[in-house]
């Protein structure tokens, strides 16, 4: 297999076609409106992911969601697998002939897919898990091949939305608790870039990059979209941008 960066420059029309037919209306966890508003986030995440040196094709595990797995399978013929705690939303994955494996980040049990993947992807996942990120990363390391890459996106603790809510005395994190079986959690913890860097280092992963990025977010309501337009100049300061994107090598 050849290791190289993926060429994505001319793939936007293909991405939009696949996204419209395989993501919106496919029966994933979130509403169709959610996926319409977040299309740019998925495109931007894919753009950054394609900057990594990965085999062609690559063996990729996406934990949660499965949208990136669909994109990489369709656009690059990667051998993708989706892992999640529940198979409730497995239908959109099965329709694309993408295998599903039960995988619970809260569990420390060894998995049969040990050392099987060139990359593990987590899009907006770690903020929902009430466990220090380094513990999750140590578990994910077991699934990576030597030299394999962990790629993740997560909200930035210092994003403007959080700073404004904190100034106004409004809670912006969910109650920190251990979930009951089948219970979904809101944001348990959001990380700064320095904190995320520490978590990766503690897990014994070698950082490739951590960057602040808006990730194409546009807001899910008219008020949110207006606020984003008004506050856009402040986001020229990277530390106030909405998201963090990180990649680290096993």
Strand order of the largest sheet: 5-4-3-6-7-9-8
Oligomer: single chain
Count of runs of 4 or more consecutive helical residues: 9
**Integer-rounded radius of gyration:** 18 Å
In short, what is this structure?
The chain is an alpha/beta fold and 250 residues long.
What does this structure look like?
With 250 residues, the chain is α/β, with parallel strands linked by helices. It has one domain (2-249): 3-Layer(aba) Sandwich (Rossmann fold). It contains 9 helices and 9 strands. It has helices spanning 12-22, 32-37, 39-49, 67-76, 91-95, 133-141, 160-168, 193-202, 222-231, and strands at residues 2-4, 54-56, 59-63, 79-84, 100-102, 117-123, 144-155, 206-213, 243-249. Strands 5-4-3-6-7-9-8 form a 7-stranded mixed beta sheet, with helices on both faces. It has a two-stranded antiparallel sheet with strand order 1-2. Helix 5 (91-95) links the parallel strand 4 (79-84) and strand 5 (100-102). Helix 1 (12-22) crosses helix 4 (67-76) and helix 6 (133-141) crosses helix 8 (193-202).
Topology of helices and strands:
Elements: E1 2-4, H1 12-22, H2 32-37, H3 39-49, E2 54-56, E3 59-63, H4 67-76, E4 79-84, H5 91-95, E5 100-102, E6 117-123, H6 133-141, E7 144-155, H7 160-168, H8 193-202, E8 206-213, H9 222-231, E9 243-249
